[in-house]
What does this fold into?
Amino acid sequence: MKLLLAGGGTGGHLFPAVALAQKLLASDAEAQVLFVGTKRGIEARVLPELGLPLETVNIRGLVGQGVWGKLRLVPQLANSIRQASRILDRFKPDVVLGVGGYASGPALLAARLKGIPCVIHEQNAWPGLTNRLLARWAERVCLSFSEADRAFNRGRTILTGNPLRNGMEDCPPLPSNELTLLVFGGSRGARAINRAMVGALPHLEEFRGRLRIQHQTGAADLQETQEGYSQAGWDDAEVVPFINDMAAAYAKAHLVICRAGATTLAELTVCGRPSILIPYPFAAADHQTANARMLSSKGAGLMLPQSEMTSDCLARMVSDLLQDRSRLNSMAGVARSLAKRGAAELILDECRRLAEAAQR
It folds into this structure.
C-alpha cells in the first residue's frame, strides 16, 4: 500500500502519523509512505531525523484570522491545493490520511478531486476546524475518543484510539525506586508551565535529593528554565529542550505535569501514568480542556486550569501526590484501564480496505 499522510505542525498531529508510517513499513516490505506538511511545522525537523520522506505545501491556518485575513488566504489555499495535486500525481497514493493541521486540508481536497480514498484521524475529544470541515468528504473518520463522534456523520466514524510512538505500549508499571517527576508542555514547550514549575521548586525543598526531575522546556525557554533550576539549588535536574525518547521518560516517571493534547493523553493512558493536566487555554475550540476533563473525571489525573495555576498551588498538588504512593498507584491503574491499544493497526486496516475497494 502507498499511503500519503497529510498534516502536522505540532507533535500532537505529527507523532500519530509517524506511528502509522512506522507500523506500515515494518509490516509490509513493499509499502511506501510520504508525508505532506509545511516548512514551519515540527515535521520539517523531525521527519528527516527519522528518515521519513516529506514534501511541503505553502499554507497557513484560518483560526484566529479576521475576515480580511481569511480572504487573503484564499489565493494561498488555491495554490496549496495545486501543490498538493502535483505531489499526488508524483506519488500516486492508494489512500490519503489526514491527521489535522494546516497541510491536511489541501492534500485531502486535492485527493478528493482526484477520486483517491480519504481517511481522517481525529485525535481530540472535540475535533479541530480542519477535520470538521473535511470530514464530509472522507470515506472514514477514525476517532481517538468516543466523545468526538457527535461532531461527525456517525455512519463514517470508527473508534480506533490514537497511534503511539514505538515503545509506548511496552511501558512498565510505576517504578518502586527513586521518585521521578516528568514535566513537559508539548513538543515546543509551554512557558506558563516552565515558569510555574521553577517557581514551585522552593516549595518542594523536602523532596530535594530524593526527587529526580526531567523537564522538557522547548528551545525558546531552555536557558531561562535551566537558570531557574540552578538558582533554586536543583542542579541535578535534567532540563532539556526536547526529549527524543519519550517512552523511556514515561517509564521512569511516577507523576507527569503536562498539557492535555490528545497524543499526550493517549501516551499517559497506555503507559499508565498519573498526571497533573494543564490544558492550553487557547487551543482551538478549547479542546484540551475537554480532553483533560475526560481524563480527570475518571480519576486518572488532576486538571489544573492555567488561569488558576500558581507556583504554590502546583507545588502543593505535586507534594500531595508524591507523598501518597497508594493514590499514585490507583491513578496509574485507572489511566491504564482507559488505554486503547492497537490503534495503528486498526487505522491501517481501514486504509487497506478502502484501497482494495478502490482498485476493484
